[in-house]
Design a protein that fits this description.
- By secondary structure, this protein is an alpha+beta fold.
- Strand 1 and strand 2 form a beta hairpin.
- The protein has one domain.
- It has a four-stranded antiparallel beta sheet with strand order 1-2-3-4.
- It has five helices and four strands.
- The protein is flat, with a radius of gyration of 16 Å.
- The relative contact order is 0.16.
């Protein structure tokens, strides 16, 4: 969620008039987003983005499309609450695991009651479409 909120803040900065700096920040954001994808998502669910696509999002976002700072804070809190009490499902194996939570925020945020993880190169990676932003 942090990376998504960061892009919204960059778009807001663009709307406030600092367009050159916002476009540069969007380019940097695209690199961090792609790194996030590689670090945390399984290969089957990765969808990299280009610096140009991030800049286009920032440049074409309308003020009414960018949630207020309060709304972004609510989204962050909702995310934090959603992942607070996750637990590994009994159906997990050595190479594939599912995490679940009894919290309503979890299902609402991820649009599923459980999130699949797979082991790639000895690291657990999320393997859910709902984690893609662009």
């Amino acid at each position: 969620m942090d990376i998504f909120i960061e892009l919204l803040e960059i778009a807001e900065n663009h709307q406030e008039g600092d367009s050159k700096k916002a476009v540069e920040a969007a380019h940097d954001w695209a690199d961090r987003y792609n790194e996030f994808q590689a670090d945390f998502l399984c290969a089957a669910e990765r969808s990299s983005t280009s610096a140009q696509a991030a800049a286009l999002f920032v440049q074409t976002s309308q003020p009414s499309e960018i949630p207020s700072e309060n709304k972004r804070d609510e989204l962050q809190e909702k995310n934090d609450n959603a992942i607070k009490d996750v637990k590994k499902s009994d159906s997990s194996t050595d190479d594939e695991a599912y995490v679940t939570s009894n919290g309503d925020e979890f299902a609402e945020l991820f649009d599923t009651g459980e999130v699949k993880l797979v082991k790639e190169a000895e690291n657990w990676k999320v393997c859910e479409e709902s984690f893609q932003l662009m």
